Amino acid sequence: MSYYKPQEIAGITADNGTAKARNSAGAVVVLGFLAGAFIALGYLLAIRVMAGAPEHWGTITGLIGAAVFPVGLILVLLAGGELLTGNMMAVSLARLVGRISTTEWLRNLLLVTVSNFVGAVFVAYFFGHVTGLTGSGIYLDKVVDLAGHKLEDSFLQAFWSGVGCNWLVALAVWLCYGSSQISGKILGIWFPTMAFVAIGFQHVVANMFLIPAAIFEGYYSWGEYILNFIPVWLGNLVGGAVFVGAAYASVYLRAGRSPVARTSQQQESYSNKAG
């Protein structure tokens, strides 16, 4: 079976969300660091590609950057990682259906937020600033320009941009859970992720790389970053937990209705903690 029906994906997501929430703190921190670094590497790749494109290409440049950015989420979901935006959907769904406690839910989101930040800033500083990949020329110009557009949004604009972003990112995670084949997982991840980047929505973990990368080069401030971080974090939470997690839980996992039974082999396939 290469594709699971939505009600089966809901059960798989509840299982994964429960496993994530009950993972050890040490494992969450390591996997969270890796996930933050993977998303940052995807963004770094997009910047290197977009910055060198001819100016007359216009919006095609953004589409090209959006097309390569999903490498980061593919690494998170297939190589292994704990990504805040994905957990905002999966762990929240597990909480909504009563599989975990509120304390377990909060613990996971807080640990993943911190570890994702450390991983993303690590890439921004050592690969961006120290190595110079975002520190000069057209690459620095692109980082400063992109960061400036993120920071100029009002609280409400940043919040709703965050909602739109994680509606799509959480759907990418959902579609990944819906396939048992690596090719299907990659395709499921790729297109919703590419869509959010091309639209220009704000992703809290991507911003953990982009804005600090500009700060390390002497642009903007940490105070400005915090004013962006708060609404985007909240918007991403609503996008993942409400528009995906709660929506599908209310349909497929409501009281008295169980997801379609899965074989033990299928269950084992999705008992991993990646995503």
UniProtKB/TrEMBL annotation:
<feature type="transmembrane region" description="Helical">
    <location>
        <begin position="158"/>
        <end position="177"/>
    </location>
</feature>
<keyword id="KW-1133">Transmembrane helix</keyword>
<feature type="transmembrane region" description="Helical">
    <location>
        <begin position="189"/>
        <end position="210"/>
    </location>
</feature>
<protein>
    <submittedName>
        <fullName>Formate/nitrite transporter</fullName>
    </submittedName>
</protein>
<dbReference type="InterPro" id="IPR000292">
    <property type="entry name" value="For/NO2_transpt"/>
</dbReference>
<dbReference type="InterPro" id="IPR023271">
    <property type="entry name" value="Aquaporin-like"/>
</dbReference>
<feature type="transmembrane region" description="Helical">
    <location>
        <begin position="105"/>
        <end position="127"/>
    </location>
</feature>
<feature type="transmembrane region" description="Helical">
    <location>
        <begin position="230"/>
        <end position="253"/>
    </location>
</feature>
<feature type="transmembrane region" description="Helical">
    <location>
        <begin position="63"/>
        <end position="84"/>
    </location>
</feature>
<comment type="similarity">
    <text>Belongs to the FNT transporter (TC 1.A.16) family.</text>
</comment>
<keyword id="KW-0812">Transmembrane</keyword>
<dbReference type="Pfam" id="PF01226">
    <property type="entry name" value="Form_Nir_trans"/>
</dbReference>
<keyword id="KW-0472">Membrane</keyword>
<feature type="transmembrane region" description="Helical">
    <location>
        <begin position="28"/>
        <end position="51"/>
    </location>
</feature>
